[in-house]
From TrEMBL:
Protein name, UniProt field: SMI1/KNR4 family protein
Highest rank taxon of the organism: Bacteria
Native organism: Saccharibacillus brassicae
Family annotation (Pfam families): SUKH-4 (PF14435)
InterPro entries, sorted: SUKH-4 (IPR025851)
């Protein structure tokens, strides 16, 4: 029996995102996205739902500007980086990007020679991972107090829950060596 790929819609994401706890969602400019070589699915999601200005784990997005630029233009990087469209950055300053011609979200690891690090298979799945991670933070704070997440006092049942959710939503994004797998494994090591 084949499991259907159920992708979160922009409407579902907007309804589920807790703006009071996690800040507003900021949409991208429809006209500005027309020239960006990404899938219709990615463009629709960015226009209709957007992304938060910032989100755990230590991610910031440029969605407040409503526009995307490629890394070559934004930072004067070599030509091969024109295939990456800047969404934001990690807490280390590494660019979080959309990969041209797709809906894939990747990170360019500057500390590793500008190599690509897979984050999610699509923008909707990335947004759903952000939602799950925000819920993990909220659940941890409820269980252990305001500093519980920062002090890595995450209940084991909550970590098990996030692992199940990530595996259900986008198995490729939780494979060995991916951004999200490394994030969860880092939490387990502390």
């Amino acid at each position: 029996m084949e499991v259907a790929d159920v992708t979160m819609t922009p409407e579902q994401f907007r309804a589920a995102w807790n703006e009071a706890a996690d800040g507003p969602l900021l949409r991208f400019d429809a006209e500005a996205l027309e020239s960006v070589p990404i899938t219709e699915e990615a463009g629709r999601f960015l226009r209709e739902a957007g992304l938060p200005g910032d989100s755990a784990p230590y991610l910031e997005f440029r969605s407040g500007e409503g526009r995307l630029s490629d890394l070559k233009t934004a930072f004067g990087m070599p030509k091969q980086y024109s295939a990456y469209w800047l969404l934001g950055s990690t807490g280390y300053g590494d660019p979080v990007c959309l990969k041209a011609g797709s809906s894939q979200v990747v990170c360019i690891r500057m500390d590793r020679g500008g190599t690509e690090w897979f984050i999610n298979s699509s923008v909707p799945k990335f947004a759903e991972f952000l939602l799950v991670y925000a819920q993990l933070v909220q659940r941890t704070v409820r269980a252990g107090g305001p500093d519980a997440f920062l002090e890595n006092e995450i209940p084991q049942e909550e970590l098990k829950w996030v692992v199940r959710e990530f595996g259900r939503i986008d198995p490729a994004a939780f494979a060995q060596g991916t951004f999200w797998r490394d994030e969860v494994e880092e939490r387990l090591r502390r």
